[in-house]
Write a structure and sequence with these properties.
Elements: H1 2-16, E1 22-29, E2 38-41, E3 46-49, E4 55-58, E5 64-71, E6 78-84, E7 89-91, E8 94-96, E9 123-127, H2 128-133, H3 139-142, E10 149-154, E11 158-163, E12 171-175, E13 178-179, E14 198-205, H4 209-212, E15 219-225, E16 233-243, E17 248-258, E18 262-273, E19 283-285, E20 289-301, E21 305-319, E22 323-325, E23 337-353, E24 356-372, E25 388-402, E26 409-424, E27 434-448, E28 452-467, E29 482-498, E30 503-514, H5 518-522, E31 524-527, E32 532-535, E33 543-555, E34 559-583, E35 586-607, E36 615-628, E37 641-650, E38 656-668, E39 684-697, E40 700-709, E41 734-742
Parallel strand pairs: 1-7, 1-8, 12-15, 32-35
Antiparallel strand pairs: 1-4, 2-3, 2-5, 5-6, 9-14, 10-11, 12-13, 14-15, 16-17, 16-41, 17-18, 18-20, 19-22, 20-21, 21-23, 23-24, 24-25, 25-26, 26-27, 27-28, 28-29, 29-30, 30-33, 31-32, 33-34, 34-35, 35-36, 36-37, 37-38, 38-39, 39-40, 40-41
Length: 743
């Protein structure tokens, strides 16, 4: 407690110092017409919108060198680097060129906060607004619209991200700037995050150990929280969506206000769904679920400090479907089902010095997972107490010092760590009580030339995992105590080359590692979620990988072509394999290790011919193959997919603003490259259509959209569906009606 008081005292002492820098200027088109563009300093989370005359002013800017982003729909985004010092007013006037390319955003998940076109790593980014316009039912479903990203699903309520064939503890999720820990080792353990409080999603494909440590071996799903309102403004919005297939609804309301130094936001969401219906008009019994989500945040900022405190609470009540049946509109959960509470508290501080800054971030997460089983005897009441209850407490911290510029070098050194405890409170023991301690040190630098950017880094990690014994020695399900330590040294280097004004190339080489998780090390019992008896291996070692990633992007006024290819080798890959034996009629599976490799890529085409700027033809193809060194295929590898979209964007009028319509066809191919305990999955095609518009009435903005997913009511089963073994198809036709009112 004393150290906390010292920390708080230091924060407010630094906050008391103050010096004034400001930025002003004008934004015009090539025809010298004023533009109401957005001006944003991502490092400071400060911004404004230029007036009708194109002029803008941003004050209260700390000393230092910061990127300033100028953006407006229909114009190419511009980035400028500006040095602020000695309380001066910097004047920057910008001319924007018309472009059919979407507005370019700053990438937050990588350390130097650059525009995607300036970033050395290829990072996919999509806003929540875009996902909603595409007709996404949930966040976990929405991210599958990003090429190279899939989801292991349990009905419509539970989804786990898969990035280029890797999932679970090989993919790290970040929310509110801190790593999300929610027992992600389980296939039926969802994200525990709702999209209502999320601004955008970024995906790093491939090893991100340099930035995030263990569990980022396969990639990172980075969820950017909702932005605060701009200075001296107040914003209120109400949004609701109706889903015809599940007779479901999801509504949220947000409020945010900001002064020059203080900002506040609050958002509350509730959603409820009955059982979903398949394409052959059968209901999937107990696929019903409901969710409550609350997000809040407060921020203080002056020229010496930016301090942000955020909190998110999510309660998910999730039915676990096991069979098909007649139509039911009931929303009352049947056993088996889950109740999951997820709390995320983050405190992010940035201390600004002359030409350098210190970022200090602390996160506390509490995950309370309760799983209820069916009654053991027929015609008896269902269990009132959770058969499985796990409480996971996680404290993580992240210190990063951004050194002063040294010529063309931007350099960051950092320290990251985690302290985590897992406790059991139910009858069943899936994983034992345990403590995990992580610490990692890193250094990374970025070197900028006119047409060439180079980024490199080095990181050293150590994880200590200690677990308690569970049961008695003569018990067949006895789990002995464990005390293991795992260490790894990793490096990454990348190059971005502007070959011509239209052609850009990226080459990234990176290593990564993952320490084995508790389930892999200690399991000894039936995992109800997978209907198998799992036996862990306490002698497992680190997974260590190396990935080569090559990206080429060609853009001109009419045409975009993107090609990404990767080759990923993983030494000592951990996987589960059947032994051929049974315990109490449950097949026994062991955790073992062998070398593995994955390869594939994503390819995209976007045609937007001038002068038909309103027409967009988009196509993407994604493929991944995963094998063990024995040439046996890896499990849970998504099928190849081709997605084609025709999108029309209408020119805005006086009252009518953003208006669009689209038609999308997704072709998923047969998946016959399966592991020894999987079966092949036939391909399928999903046709979706939709459209929407917004209307501005003075200070009121009204938005509406209608989307029809699976228009032809196709009956299909995804290869990554956990319901596949029970022969249960995925969701049939679903019409989404969305309305949003903003003031």
């Amino acid at each position: 407690m004393k150290s906390l008081y010292i920390w708080l005292g230091a924060v407010f002492v630094i906050a008391s110092a103050n010096s004034q820098n400001s930025l002003s200027g004008t934004v015009n088109s090539l025809e010298n017409e004023p533009l109401s563009a957005t001006i944003y300093l991502p490092h400071l989370e400060k911004g404004t919108i230029a007036g009708l005359d194109g002029t803008y002013t941003i004050s209260n800017i700390p000393n230092g060198t910061y990127k300033v982003i100028y953006s407006l729909l229909g114009y190419a985004t511009v980035s400028r680097t500006v040095l602020f010092s000695e309380g001066k007013e910097e004047i920057v006037s910008i001319t924007l060129e018309e472009s059919a390319v979407e507005i370019e955003e700053v990438i937050i998940s990588t350390p130097f906060h650059k525009l995607q076109s300036d970033n050395v790593m290829k990072v996919e980014r999509i806003s929540m607004d875009q996902l909603k316009k595409q007709g996404s039912t949930t966040l976990s479903e929405g991210i599958t619209n990003i090429p190279g990203v899939a989801s292991i699903s349990t009905g419509t309520s539970i989804g786990k991200p898969v990035i280029r064939g890797l999932s679970a503890n090989r993919v790290l999720t970040y929310a509110q700037g801190v790593r999300l820990e929610n027992q992600q080792f389980g296939d039926e353990h969802g994200l525990g995050i709702n999209g209502a409080g999320v601004e955008s999603v970024e995906v790093i494909k491939g090893p991100a150990t340099l930035l995030y440590g263990s569990d980022a071996l396969g990639g990172v799903l980075y969820l950017n929280p909702e932005r605060f309102a701009t200075a001296d403004s107040l914003h209120v919005d109400l949004e609701t969506t109706y889903f015809t297939n599940t007779l479901g609804s999801a509504s949220n309301m947000g409020f945010k206000t900001s002064s020059e130094k203080f900002r506040f936001l609050l958002r509350a969401m509730y959603g409820t769904h009955s059982d979903y219906r398949t394409g052959n008009d059968l209901d999937v019994i107990n696929s019903r679920f409901n969710e409550t989500d609350i997000t809040s945040g407060v921020q203080f900022q002056n020229t010496k400090l930016k301090s942000t405190l955020r909190y998110n609470y999510n309660r998910s009540n999730l039915g676990l479907p096991e069979s098909l049946g007649e139509t039911s509109s009931s929303r009352e959960l049947l056993a088996p089902y889950q109740e999951v509470d997820n709390h995320i508290l983050s405190w992010d501080n940035v201390f600004f010095f002359n030409n350098s800054s210190l970022h200090a971030k602390v996160g506390y997460l509490f995950n309370d997972r309760r799983e209820f089983e069916e009654a053991e005897e027929p015609n008896t009441p269902e269990m009132d107490e959770a058969a499985l209850r796990l409480k996971l407490n996680t404290l993580n911290y992240d210190l990063a010092y951004h050194l002063p510029l040294m010529g063309k070098f931007e350099t960051i050194v950092g320290l990251q760590g985690m302290y985590q405890t897992n406790e059991n409170f139910g009858e069943e023991i899936l994983i034992p009580d345990a403590t995990t301690k992580d610490i990692g040190i890193l250094a990374t630098t970025h070197y900028h030339l006119e047409k060439l950017d180079i980024q490199a880094g080095l990181r050293l990690d150590n994880r200590v995992l200690e677990s308690e014994a569970s049961g008695t020695v003569d018990d067949p399900e006895y789990i002995p105590a464990l005390d293991r330590s795992f260490s790894s040294l990793n490096a990454a280097i990348g190059v971005k080359w502007d070959v011509t004004k239209q052609l850009l190339g990226r080459l990234n080489l990176a290593s990564g590692f993952r320490a084995p998780n508790l389930a892999e090390l200690t399991s000894n019992g039936v995992h109800e979620g997978t209907n198998r008896y799992e036996v862990g291996n306490p002698n497992l070692t680190n997974e260590q990988n190396f990935q080569t990633d090559l990206s080429l992007e060609f853009r001109n006024d009419h045409f975009e072509l993107i090609a990404n290819g990767f080759y990923n080798t993983i030494n000592d890959y951990i996987f589960i394999t059947p032994t051929g034996t049974f315990i109490d009629e449950n097949p026994v599976f062991d955790y073992v290790q062998n070398d593995a490799y994955l390869y594939g890529g994503e390819f995209g085409l976007h045609i937007h011919p001038h002068p038909l700027d309103w027409l967009h033809v988009e196509s993407s193809f994604e493929t991944v193959t995963g094998k063990l060194s024995s040439e046996a295929f890896l499990p849970l590898i998504p099928a190849n997919a081709l997605t084609n979209t025709l999108r029309v964007e209408f020119n805005p009028g006086t009252i009518r603003k953003d208006t669009y319509t689209f038609i999308r066809l997704k072709n998923v191919f047969d998946q016959s490259n399966v592991s020894t305990f999987e079966t092949s999955t036939p391909g399928y095609s999903l046709l979706s259509i939709g459209g929407g518009s917004s209307f501005q009435f003075k200070e009121v903005l009204l938005e509406g959209s209608l989307t029809v997913n699976n228009l032809t009511n196709e009956t299909y089963i995804s290869h990554l569906s956990r319901l596949k073994n029970d022969g249960i198809p995925d969701i049939g036709r679903n019409i989404l009606i969305r309305l949003k009112l903003s003031i």
